[in-house]
Amino acid sequence: MAASWWPMLLRTKIFSGPFAVAALACTELLSSTFHKSTLTYPKNAIWSSISMDLAENATIEAATASWKAMAVLVRNVPGLMDLGITGNEFAATSTISTSNNQSSVKKGVGLIITLYGYNTTASMLKLLPEPTSHRMMTYAAVKGVKIEMAEPNMAAHYLSFFDVLNPNPSACSDISLISSRLLGHSQLTDLSLQDVQRHLYTIMNSQVEEEPSNMIIGLQGGPGPRDASQDMRGGLNPAWRQA
Fold first, then answer.
1. Are 20 and 88 in contact (CB under 8 A)?
2. Is residue 172 situated within a structural domain?
3. Is residue 31 part of a domain?
4. 62 DSSP assignment
5. At 187, which CATH number?
6. What are 14-64's pLDDT values in tens digits?
7. Where does the record place the region Disordered (predicted)?
8. Is the pTM above the cut of 0.85?
9. Inter-residue contact 114 to 74 (CB < 8 Å)
């Protein structure tokens, strides 16, 4: 049953995390601002990131390793959200030069995922994603692939953190507005690493041959939206509260 989601993704060419369907997080923010007399902002916001870069002269081995590492990350996204972490991921493919015409791997992938949490500590936000980043490094321990986890940063209050995420005052939730499908444990974590790797490679196959493609994953669901009391809910897409 889990695999039945993938044909829809293949048709749309758009992928989103457990969490998805294009949304009105903008109105959630506006609603929260309107009700600020009754809503309590988080005491702080901590954020970090995991990045993966692929060298320009990457080999087939390095490109294959990059897909394995990304599959590790994607399979762990629902678990990270269950721990109260939210954020977004951006991935992009790049074509590799190879004389091996028999290889099925023609491109590699690089990515960055920004992870953040509220009312927590820098040490906690470093501790929770570390197993995922370490496993990514294990699968990508080849020349030409570089994976790093940034040290956490802290914003003293929520509004200053919002400014960090949204430096352009005219934009609001632009990352999430093009996400398209609601995926969770059964569609990601419960599949084998090989299956997720194969699906990701197929989904990110550009419609224009040899051109790069992008993928955006938004972590908009999880315990926060799901557990918000009815009287404190704003204009968030209801599907996110079921993730």
1. no
2. no
3. no
4. H
5. 3.40.462
6. 333 333 333 223 333 333 444 444 567 788 899 999 999 998 888 889 999
7. 221-243
8. no
9. no
